Please model this.
Amino acid sequence: MKIVVVGTRGFPDVQGGVERHCEELYTRLAALGCDITVISRSPYTGGTPYVYRGVQVLPVDCPKHKFMEAPIHTLLGVLKAKQLKAKILHVHAIGPSLFVPLARLLGMKVVMTHHGPDYERKKWNWFAKTILRLGERLGVTCSNQVIAVSQAIGCSVRARFGRDLAVIPNGVVVSEPAHEEEVLKKYDLERGEYILAVGRLVPEKGFDELIESFERFATAGQSRVLRKKLVIVGDADHEDEYSRQLKKKSSRISGVVMTGFQTGKPLQELYSHAGLFVLPSYHEGLPITLLEALSYGSSCLVSDIPANREVGLENDRYFRPGDIGVMTRKLEQFVNEAPAGDGPRAKRIQQVVRDYDWGQIAARTLELYEGMLGSNNHWPMIEMKEKALAFAG
Model:
């Protein structure tokens, strides 16, 4: 079964939720016997093809540019997939889905995975948001199969497009907690005495508001506060004014530590020893970072958005995004609470094992692929013309 994948920067050790999703999914599908080729972006993975845990990774050149990177790479990736004689082209995210009609015209069967309405992200201007909305429409209406990574996304797509789809969520790998403290020593951290946030340095993550909330909390005269720190793990894909100002702001506030992008053992260590994990996002598809925090049994505090609600934390673990006052009060509440015992931690871990196991996710995706190849769903040219006229109208 020849599967070609576009819409990801590549892996391993490339920042991003889609990148982590693809790494975990396709290495498992390769182990199940699928012939997987991932079309990566050479600025992130280098220009030489390689094999990673059974997956062929084929870099394609593209500019490392906020607006042009994804469309140029996806166009070249679709053409490369045709050259490779892909049985199925799997397109990730709504931006790259702009080229789904081209893939269908070239005779490929297409799966589109909807990771979230990216046009809601603050970083995009009106033109980019319009293109993203068009990509969503073309991907949803023109793909052979559509996957949503959360129930919230699935319900939205069904309501707006009347399209049947599969909900196959993001997953998580449950790892043993790290016992080492090398990263803690590097950043002068203590076990259980820091708040952890993980993600890209983009406006919709709300890290600027988290920093402000931490500053209020740290200056409120609370006992034990002087030992607390806020650790933000991540970086910007493309350096911009927001990320520069965020780094500048963090450098002026005592107790705020920015580590840059981390992966592997260092990230595992930071998750393992955090006293509280906070995700203040305005927008998520289904946050892998939250699932990872729960997989370590972490105490979590998150914004009240559909994707975070879907994970099913207790009601008092949520706050309205952007509400710095409530966020500050909840930081005070949960940072100073007694550490959770083995029972609550085990419950959190069991929850993600039950609902977000990558093995089950890979098996469901393989079943979807096999169903597609067993069908005679060839898209006639007349249907393409009708859809094109409908879009034009």
In short: The radius of gyration is 21 Å. Confidence is low (pLDDT under 50) at residues 378-393.
